[in-house]
Amino acid sequence: MVNLQSINQGNFKDMLLKNASILIIDDDPDVLTAVRLMLKTQVKEVLTEKNPENLRAILAKQTFDLILLDMNFTSSINTGNEGLFWLKKVKELKSDAEVIMITAYGDIDLAIRCLKEGAADFVVKPWHNEKLLSTIKEALNKKATGKSTTTPAEDGIVNKELLGQSSIMQDIFYKIQKIAPTDANILILGENGTGKDLIAKAIHQQSLRANKPYVKVDVGALTDSLFESELFGHKKGAFTDAREDRAGRFEAANGGTLFLDEIANISLHQQAKLLSVLQNRQVMRLGDNRVIPIDIRLVCATNVPLQELANESRFRKDLIYRINTVEIMVPPLRKRGNDIVLLANYFSKFYCTKYLKPCVELDQSAIDKMLHYNYPGNVRELQYTIERAVIMAEDDVLSGNDIIFSPIESSRPSEDEPDELNLSLVEKNTILRVIEKHNGNISKAAKELGLTRTALYRRLSKYDI
Questions:
Q1: Does this chain's domain 4-145 share its CATH topology with 167-329?
Q2: Taking the CB of residue 155, how many other CB atoms lie within 10 A of it?
Q3: pLDDT tens across 204-253, in order?
Q4: Residue 314 pLDDT exceeds 70
Q5: How many angstroms separate the CA atoms of 341 and 403, rounded?
Q6: Confidence label for 413 from pLDDT (cuts 50, 70 and 90)
Q7: Confidence class of residue 75 from pLDDT cuts 50, 70 and 90?
Q8: How far apart are CA 385 and CA 383, in angstroms?
Q9: Domain 4-145, CATH
Q10: Which CATH architecture is the domain 167-329 placed in?
Q11: Most buried of the four, 149, 267, 415, 446, by CB within 10 Å?
Q12: What residues contact 403, with CB distance under 8 A and at least 6 apart?
């Protein structure tokens, strides 16, 4: 059945576009020419301007429905965030034009700040013309009706598994929405347990490659002997156990998205191999001389801070530049406010369904306890805490006494001893106790401790356990 409402809405937006006067301000003449040529048959009038200093005189003479405004100029105003400066100028001049910011990948965080200062939207260079037209139509519709007909980041796991109502998470959702349709390489930064893998999956789901493969690899867990075989594949007979030809993860992800988790944990030798593949966009299976072209969108993640990652004795800077066109910093759970309660309610419903138990509610004592905890294990720790509480629940209300956090954090150092020494001792003893409790089962021990298996193995090595 044809949706008449959607047709009417589409016709209305087309009409708004056809009658629109648009001003484009950018110091790149190629951008001005490209946008003018694209819009001249679509809109009533297009005016281009290289120098934002002329903005006041232009707006004094003429009104516009929409302004496309670059984020960076080589002008006399050297604020480091010129787009934000000129956006404020437009608002000060009482222009009622909607403003769409034109930005490069590196300025996306600043562009999101512009949204909070009154910009209607932003587009990322280089853009698809259809996407730019859609963004312009939406901004004109918002100006005409006072409301938007789109809701950012509603696809896939966003707002289903990847949850967050805090402003910091809404900014991340908006960034995902903007960068996902591009082929920019993404580096996701954040502490263990913050949900970096969910963000990687959301980027794929909202990308133009959504119907193609999504392949995840925990490269931090690959030994030198497995690294090349797993990522690049091997030919039969290349080594002792190579009983048949096997495609690597790059080939498996061809046309789609490859997510390399724990990227900071690979060796310098492995980094050199990876860099070569990313530069040449082709792989060679172990034991084979044939090169295979690959077309992938790369997303990487690490819990190592970018400043520490930039230490060349640990990680090649040329590889950082290659994988980090855009970075997404995922906040720790302790900085997300009431998202803690939102997530706790989600996990309680999930585990009540999973374990066939009646739905439980969180009373105020449980909420207060959760809101005042520091969450060193982040969302993963909260998840396991709620799972444990649901399993042990005797009735349909969870109180503060039912919320028991990871034993690895339950003990605190005494005030008269160095924190680092005490915490290391507490951590080592707790790990030993939990491993003994589970009779050496690393998977079960890691789950109770709120750690990944890889993270637990690192701690075992650290303490010579």
A1: yes
A2: 16
A3: 999 989 999 999 999 988 887 789 888 998 788 667 676 788 888 999 99
A4: yes
A5: 13
A6: very low
A7: low
A8: 5
A9: 3.40.50.2300
A10: 3-Layer(aba) Sandwich (3.40)
A11: 446
A12: 366, 369, 370, 385, 389
- The CA distance from 323 to 344, in Å, is 34
Q: What is the DSSP string of 18-33?
A: HT-EEEEE-S-HHHHH
**Tens digit of each residue's pLDDT (9 = 90 or more) over 389-403:** 999 988 899 999 999
Please state whether the peptide bond connecting residue 376 to the residue before it is cis, i.e. omega within 30 degrees of 0. Answer: no
Q: What is residue 404's three-state secondary structure?
A: coil
Question: Which residue has tokens 């005409």?
Answer: 144
Q: What residues form DSSP beta bridges with 48?
A: 24
d(CA 182, CA 124): 9
Average pLDDT of the residues in 439-463: 79
Range of weakest confidence among 75-89, 184-198, 388-402: 75-89
The span from the CA of 398 to the CA of 438, in Å, is 26
Structure tokens at 289: 């001389």
Residue 114 confidence (pLDDT) above 60: yes
Q: Where are the domains of the chain?
A: 4-145, 167-329, 333-405, 419-462
The answer on pLDDT for 6 being more than 70 is no
Element (H, E) at 364: helix 364-371
Q: 330 and 192 in contact (C-beta within 8 Å)? A: no
* 216 φ/ψ angles, rounded to the nearest 5 degrees: -110, 135
**pTM of the predicted model, to two decimals?**
0.73
Residue of 336, 192, 164 lying closest to 261 (CA atoms): 192
- Fold (topology level) of 333-405: Helicase, Ruva Protein; domain 3 (1.10.8)
Q: CATH homologous superfamily of domain 419-462?
A: Homeodomain-like (1.10.10.60)
**Do the bridges between strand 326-329 and strand 186-189 make them parallel or antiparallel, or are there none, so unpaired?**
parallel
